[in-house]
Amino acid sequence: KQSITSWSFVLTNVEGRHFYSCVLGFIQNLEINVESDTNVPNRFKVEIPQSLCLVSRWPYVNVLKDILLHLFREAEDQHAKSGMHHIESIVSNIMQLPVPKYPIEFTWGISFGSDLLTLKIPSIPSPNHFPLVDFSLRLLFLSLDLSKVIQLLAAIMQERQLLFVSASYSLLTIASESLLSLLFPFVWYHVYVPIVPPSLVDYIQAPTPFIMGIHRSLLPSKKDMISEVDIIDLDRGTIEWGGQGEPHPFPEAEYEELMRKVRPLIHPQLFHNDKILSPEETIMKREDPFEIDSESQRNIRIAFFESFLSLFSESQGFHLRSNNSSDSEFVFSPVLFRRNDFLKTQQNDSRKNFLELFMETQAWIQYEKQTNPMFDEALSFDKNSESMEDFLHSRFKEEKRVFLAPKANLPKKKEAGGFSLQTFLKDSVVD
């Protein structure tokens, strides 16, 4: 068994749409015979770098990695047994795999003869739910402490030029994706390149707002970069602010509330040492707070979402009613939202300046044009009511597992090339 490497990256097309990718890299060892003048063949051993790559328009970070790993192990086993592999046939089956309406879990490998792999494919949530995050927030909070994460979120909300640096390709992508997931319900509309390839290093000189990531080996010297770039060193946990200095700080009340709620979630061991835990609480304490579907990770995302609710809790009173709407309906529009009147109500100058800066960004302008239904509905709740808490927890996609298994009459052994995964899914889904 040879060592392999894996990393994820995000591609962006001209329309700004993201495509999520995962790469599995490995070395293929080959023996090449070269005839010499003496007719005695010379045998050379060569190592050829190879890679497998999957691209999806859906943010399936872990799913893509699991599929690639299974593909590689399957091909490796086939080659060891027969000297051949049928990886193209397996890939053709993957290409037929549809995006499920509900989260599904099925057993992979029934037609290939290798160890079975249970692969869980989450569905894509509707707009009135939290978006899919198919990765752990662990790497972000291991790389940067919570105060720096909040500071970076403020920088993103002020459309800065952010350059992430690391010797790990995977860390560059996961850290960027994690931060943008905490920005919900708002969206980053500017240049987004989590891993800048060597041929595009000059792009970090762009004068427009961007979020980019660069491998440490490719980082130019400071004299070769524009002074406004903020450099986030994920390996060292440091931030070097550019010529604009530190971003305007996150409003104090929301900052303190985030620190109070999130710190115990990312450092649970620090907050339970003096308490005698029940058996159930002991089990919960042992659970990884950064499991993708864990309650802790959900609560981290909820805490950041609630900070935005707090910032704009009084904004609904500054939306004019539409002529064709009922008394209970409000329409968010750049024309109908009385931005200046809303800002005048802010008593704290620092808070007012932060909101004023944010309301000049594309994230807010685009939100005014097309609001988020979940955020709008949440704004109508009392901030501290139990109904608000129930509402937010219900906004994660309900876990509905559908187990896919072969029909009883499915042959035990079937060539990979003759196996239609799409037909298999159609015949095996249980409502």
SSE blueprint:
Layout: E1 5-12, E2 18-35, E3 41-56, H1 61-82, H2 87-94, E4 104-108, E5 117-121, H3 138-143, H4 146-157, E6 161-166, H5 169-182, E7 191-193, E8 210-215, E9 230-233, E10 238-240, H6 252-266, H7 279-286, H8 295-311, H9 339-344, H10 349-358, H11 362-369, H12 373-378, H13 386-394, E11 403-404, H14 421-428
Parallel strand pairs: 4-11, 6-8, 6-9, 7-8
Antiparallel strand pairs: 1-2, 2-3, 4-5, 9-10
Helix pairs in contact: 6-8
Tell me what portion of residues adopts beta-strand conformation. 15-25%
The structure class reads: alpha/beta
Please tell me the overall pLDDT: 77
Strand numbers in spatial order across the main sheet: 7-8-6-9-10
* Strand and helix order: EEEHHEEHHEHEEEEHHHHHHHHEH
Main sheet specs? 5 strands, mixed
Radius of gyration: 25 Å
Total of DSSP H or I helical runs spanning 4+ residues = 14
Q: Which residue ranges are poorly predicted, with pLDDT under 50 across at least 5 consecutive positions?
A: 109-114, 323-335, 400-431
Report the helical percentage.
25-40%
Number of strands: 11
For the termini, the CA-CA separation is: 41 Å
Tertiary shape: globular
